[in-house]
Amino acid sequence: DSVLAGWADTGRCCAVVEHERLIALSPAARQAGLRTGQRRASAQALAPQAELFARDRAAETLRLQEAALALLQYTPQLALREPDALLLDVGASLRLFGGPRALARRVRATLATLCLHGRLGMAPTAQGAWLLARGAAPAALRLSSLARRLDALPVELLPEAQAQAAWLQGLGCGYLAQLRALPRAGLQRRAGPDLLMALDRAYGQTAEAHAWFIAAPRFEARLELADYAEHAQALLGAAARLTEQLSGWLHGGRLAVRSVTLRLEHERGRRARPPSCLTLTMAEPVWHGRHLQDLLRERLERLELPEPVIAMALSADQTQQADSASQTLFPDPASQAADHARLLDLLAARLGPQAVRHAAACADHRPEQANQWQPVHQPAPRHCPAGPVLERPFWLLEPARALPEQTHRPVYQGQPLRLLRGPERIESGWWDDAPAQRDYFVAEDQAGARYWLYRERGQRWFLHGLYG
Predict the structure, then answer these.
(1) Of 105, 179, 383, 463, which has the fewest CB atoms closer than 10 Å, so is most exposed?
(2) What pLDDT does residue 390 have?
(3) How far is CA 81 from CA 22, 65, 105, 194, 238, in A?
(4) What is the structure's pLDDT at 9?
């Protein structure tokens, strides 16, 4: 099965001109009476309101490659058919995406995000799907129905038949069914083998070979804006176009990304200003475009632009192989680590990376320094070898509470405490501004509750922890 993404339809009365002739028309231009092959002067006389644009093959190729990159999220077997078509082998993906109709809706949504409108054709052969899309014919999922659909299409849809168009019209061959009814030997002598080969490929009577699209090893996409963007809200659509391409690139390479950078380019020339960079670091590697779009939207909605933006560029800084999905029969969505990571990413994008923190162990003998709060996206500290297992309280008091002393025994809440174990000497921190020289004890009151105490240099008692 193959899908054809075609030329964008802007909804205005416009046409593309090459060599002084019209080669592509919008629906409004067709309603105004314009036809492909018409000369520029005739078109201007017939529809003075029509907008005529010179063909830009380089821009077409760039847009086609952008669409190919974004559509890699549906299948890695994708081929470019110049100048305006993409062929996708989705035979192995139909059940994954919920069937042909659901897949077609998703492909249209992806193209709409890229500001493209495509005519889709679906068939058991790539050539057949391409012809169905060109002729705006319904999809055909079997070879028998494909033959009926193709037979009703005009002959001029086949590029290989255009050189013999006048001869075929003279024979009364206006449709592919009439062309197939001609003797093959005579047709080959007159038109050459290419026409028959194109017919056989479309009807599934011969094998097809394609050069699959290969994405670049590193992702970096850039987009020139049509006008100056003075507010970050105006950048959301362009950011969505870039993230769709990144999502396709990640799916095609079975990769996940941990960090991306969005570069906002400002005015050049005498008023040049360095680009503004926006870096997103995820708690867990992600590869879904929707999640990346949500994070960029949260950051852009709170961003104040120092200068108007004229271009945007998105790059993937840190990538790794994507983890396989859960293989359990009934996975619990609430227990998925990816859901928790997406929540942390969203909170960090909305509140700022410094506002969302988690506890991280630190190699320090001082109890109040052994745990530090750090941003969730900050890399974890280097693992230290585990020391001896020590009995430690569940709660630490910060700061430690000074205790009175009665008959050389510490007193807490009016009760003298009985020392059970100790001392444990902790002497550390000589390299910073918080040196500690303490003797720790485990104490117990009359009710059996236990406390963690220390005595600093043989002076006063302090309560530092409570056991559960």
Answers:
(1) 383
(2) 72
(3) 21, 11, 22, 17, 26
(4) 42
Let me know: does 105 contact 74? Beta carbons within 8 Å: no
The dihedrals phi and psi of 437, each to the nearest 5 degrees, come to: -135, 95
For residue 317, which of 377, 267, 359 has the smallest C-alpha distance?
A: 377
**Local structure of residue 182 (DSSP, 8 states):** S
The type of residue at 65 is: Q
CA 34 to chain centre: 40
Which of 130, 173, 182, 177 has the alpha carbon at shortest distance from 153?
Answer: 177
Burial of 444 (C-beta count, 10 Å sphere; 0-12/13-18/19+): middle
CA distance 322 to 324: 6
439's tokens? 């003797």
| Residues facing 198 on adjacent strands | none
Task: Name which of 404, 371, 394, 401 is nearest 449 in CA terms.
Answer: 394
Distance between CA atoms of 244 and 266, rounded to whole angstroms?
Answer: 23
- The residues with which 279 forms a beta bridge, in sequence order, are 261
Q: DSSP labels for 383-404?
A: P----------SEEEEEEEEE-
Confidence of residue 3 (pLDDT cuts 50, 70, 90): very low
Residue 257's DSSP bridge partners are: 286, 319
Q: Give the pLDDT confidence score for residue 6 in this predicted structure.
A: 35
Per-residue confidence (pLDDT) for residue 388, from 0 to 100: 60
34: nearest Cα among 10, 12, 50: 50
Q: Look at strands 357-361 and 276-286 and give their pairing.
A: unpaired
Where helices occur in 204-302 by DSSP H, the ranges are 236-253, 289-301
For strand 409-412 and strand 415-416, is the pairing parallel, antiparallel, or unpaired? Answer: antiparallel
Distance CA 337, CA 199 (A): 51
- Categorize the per-residue pLDDT at 123 as very low, low, confident or very high, splitting at 50, 70 and 90: very high
